[in-house]
Amino acid sequence: MSGKEIRRSMPLFPIGTVMQLTELTARQIRYYEEHQLISPARTEGNRRLFSLNDIDRLLEIKDLIDQGVNMAGIKQLFLVKQQHANEQEQQMKKEKRELTDEQLRKLLRNELLHSGRLNRSSLRQGDLSRFFH
Amino acid sequence: MSGKEIRRSMPLFPIGTVMQLTELTARQIRYYEEHQLISPARTEGNRRLFSLNDIDRLLEIKDLIDQGVNMAGIKQLFLVKQQHANEQEQQMKKEKRELTDEQLRKLLRNELLHSGRLNRSSLRQGDLSRFFH
DNA sequence: AAGTCATGTTAGGTTTTCTGACATGAACTT
DNA sequence: AAGTTCATGTCAGAAAACCTAACATGACTT
User: Fold this and answer.
1) What is d(CA A29, CA A127) in angstroms, rounded to the nearest whole number?
2) Domain boundaries, chain B
3) pLDDT tens figures, B16-51
4) Which fold has domain B3-113?
5) Strand C closer than 7 Å to the CB of B75?
6) Residues in domain HTH merR-type (chains A, B) (predicted)?
7) Nearest chain B Cα distance for residue A13, angstroms
8) Among candidates A129, A105, A100, A99, which has minimal Cα distance to A117?
9) B65, B29 in Cβ contact below 8 A?
């Protein structure tokens, strides 16, 4: 729920832009959606609108495809990754509960300053950071 | 010529997205282009494609319009700002020429680490940072 | 009252995207 | 070898988004 997450999940890009950014064809992108690897938002007029997160995900998918992983495999990988992230979040919360107020303040301040070190997982993955600072 | 500048000037957004991001109408955006306050790129099919810089600029324009400045005024402001930025760049280069190698290394390292403090001018201006970290 | 400015509105045309269907080649299975 | 499955290509018809150009309008200026 950080501001950053909101920004990264804001639906902004039509499929044409995503095609260029990812070097995937429209057909591929729609196919991956069909297999529920991504779930881009839609405009009122039913056009897909992709977020930065979606694009990251597509770049990950591309990478995995290149390495020979199939749809089912990718879906599983995403699932595992998701679980891992959840656990880590739980762990975070738990640790926070154990902190004194002073420690908490320091921690929050750190999170705000250079927010998000966790979250970028260890998988070799898509990286849109080259598009935005 | 920093990577960041390249990213910020990459044409990504169709006019519909820009409308939502800036809360300007298509008519307004085209009008500002007509008066050369912005120069969005075009696709092969002649559709406008806006960069983050374009959007920043549109937000600045909106701000200035709200403050009663007209097209000519905004154009002048942009001109002045541009000149100012150029001068500052010249100044930078000059200062660099006067540095020892060691000083230069430190300076460059700094520029790379948190690049771009200069460049965001002092004008109250559009801010897209709320969309991207 | 006439003119200018910024924007709205409309019209006709072009481009982009949508879904669904069928085609294809590579990799597996039998 | 013949048949499947998978990932993607290609095509068609429809809908949405965008384009330019023109005219309309209301708020200011002169």
Assistant:
1) 17
2) 3-113
3) 999 999 999 999 999 999 999 999 999 999 999 999
4) Multidrug-efflux Transporter Regulator; Chain: A; Domain 2 (1.10.1660)
5) no
6) 12-80
7) 7
8) A129
9) no
